[in-house]
Design goal:
The structure is a homodimer of 313-residue chains. Chain A is an alpha/beta fold and 313 residues long. In chain A, the strands form 3 sheets. Chain A has an 8-stranded mixed sheet, covered by helices on one side. Chain A has a two-stranded antiparallel sheet with strand order 3-4. The longest helix of chain A has 19 residues. Chain A has a single domain, classed as P-loop containing nucleotide triphosphate hydrolases (Rossmann fold). Chains A and B meet through helix 3, strand 3 and strand 4 of A and helix 3, strand 3 and strand 4 of B.
């Protein structure tokens, strides 16, 4: 990271969202731009207290804090943030079992993905930047079907069943964390493309005043209806927020102008500039999405600012 | 433990010694008297960084600190001592593999057995009472053959081989820890019973002035040649120490007098009084040894005193 880094401890990014909400895809680009050797990625799934068979036997959802070692997750985030190593538990999604732990040393940036990252005050306090992913629900179901059938050996029926079974736990344990996020990121198909699952998805960022968001007016002023909008709105909880909308069909020149603006705001990190927005499409080929790229860059902006000591810590 | 316990954190006992030095047998009696629900027992073997196959591939001994997560062991002892839970790694001696970790909460007493408990300053500082077991080497070989063949599925040849292979690592990593012990405990056969491996073994305690040892003179004064001796001696490092020798053939009355004296010195713990000195003999039957019982009681004395706040902490 920036050689003029001034904060003498790891910067912690949280990525909370339901299963198949796009956490890993978003995080992958952020890790790539910061430099993989400067980033540690954790999943709160590794802190499952019960393996898959035990959760079934106890009829308890992986989303339930009681199925997870929340206190150990708190302890490990605190240790990493203090610059200390941990022996991290490991949950294997393919087999649904808990295995041999791995030794993890802190690095400049720690990305914590998972279901329960903001469940307690101590967990929330361990983060510098908190994201919450809530893609359009029909879209998430498609993403989940594709991944769980291809990579985790489930049938489509099993996936639909598990979505149904999780609904109550999702409402009880996952959704209450939304309110603690600095940025809520929602990918959704444009109205005229209901079946879109990839490069042409729009994204909406709900920007809470808990972080000093970058001033985007220079780009906003440059032209009106070109796939990029910032509006004042009321969040679902009634609070006033900025809503940033980036259209999937934003043209490449316009996306580039926004990228240039964001990079110009963090000149210390300009040597890191690289292509963002990559994801695996329906045929498992690498594709690129401007809304994803810009989302990753906006988050990176905050991490760089935090590392430079521009945010209260 | 004593209801008038005054130290508000766990008391940590270390039991360091080579493989089959009698660590678990000694610790079992101490845990029994303190009350199993008041004691957490850990093995530093759980902190192996490499499993058995990996150690073989790398030609590295389990005794080598590099084969172990020493920093994580330090961290976990510090956490437990501070009253916090840990997710403890697990090494399975039967299979030689590392597996799913277990959640461990601190209790009033923590007994840490293993090979490397005093390897670093931080580890030593985490202990309240430090034991080092160095039984007569021919005796330890017999104990190790019996256990490893019966319980860990090795052949006698494999055991003898491993003893040979460990010799250098033992000298380099295990033995230097002896000097940090408060009490060095050495079981050994009496001169006239070279084959003894059980109830008639003598024990010698080398008592360093790093702990305030109990005043045993009332019992010493009560009679001379009766299986119980305290002498001023030079330790192998030349330093003056008290040597306490308890003979395997000490008569029961005399052993009882010493027990009574020790219990009278810790009246707060008298409700815990129970039979000590049990071990599994060559035929895996439970037998009793007076020297073992008195050794366990002497150690318990120190733990109770430490819990009562009588020792600097």
């Amino acid at each position: 990271m920036p050689s003029n880094r001034t904060v003498d401890r790891p910067i912690v990014l949280g990525v909370v969202g339901d299963s198949a909400a796009g956490k890993s895809t978003l995080a992958a680009g952020i890790a790539a731009v910061l430099g993989p050797d400067r980033v540690v990625q954790l999943s709160t799934d590794d802190y499952h207290r019960l393996d898959r068979l035990e959760r079934r036997a106890h009829k308890i959802s992986a989303l339930d804090p009681a199925a997870n070692h929340i206190d150990i997750l708190e302890q490990h985030l605190r240790l990493l943030r203090d610059g200390r190593p941990i022996l991290k538990p490991v949950y294997d999604h393919a087999s649904g079992t808990l295995g041999r732990p791995v030794y993890v040393e802190p690095r400049d940036f720690i990305i914590v993905e998972g279901l329960l990252g903001y469940h307690t005050r101590s967990l929330r306090d361990a983060h510098d930047v908190k994201l919450y992913l809530e893609p359009d629900e029909a879209l998430r179901v498609k993403w989940k079907l594709r991944r769980d059938c291809a990579e985790r050996g489930y049938t489509a029926d099993e996936v639909m069943n598990s979505l149904e079974l999780r609904r109550a736990a999702r409402r009880e344990f996952l959704e209450p964390q939304r309110t603690f996020a600095d940025i809520v990121i929602a990918f959704h198909p444009p109205p005229d493309r209901a079946d879109e699952t990839g490069a042409h998805l729009n994204v909406r960022h709900t920007l809470r005043p808990t972080l000093p968001h970058p001033d985007l007016t220079p780009v906003l002023d440059a032209g009106g209806k070109s796939g990029f909008y910032l509006t004042l709105a009321r969040d679902i909880d009634g609070k006033p927020v900025d809503m940033l909308e980036i259209a999937g069909d934003i043209d490449a020149r316009r996306a580039r102008a926004l990228e240039d603006l964001l990079w110009s705001l963090i000149p210390e990190a300009n040597h890191l500039r690289t292509d963002l927005g990559q994801f695996a499409d329906d045929h498992n080929r690498t594709a690129v999405s401007h809304p994803l790229a810009l989302s990753q860059l906006l988050v990176t902006y905050h991490l760089v600012k935090a590392a430079l000591g521009h945010y209260a810590v």
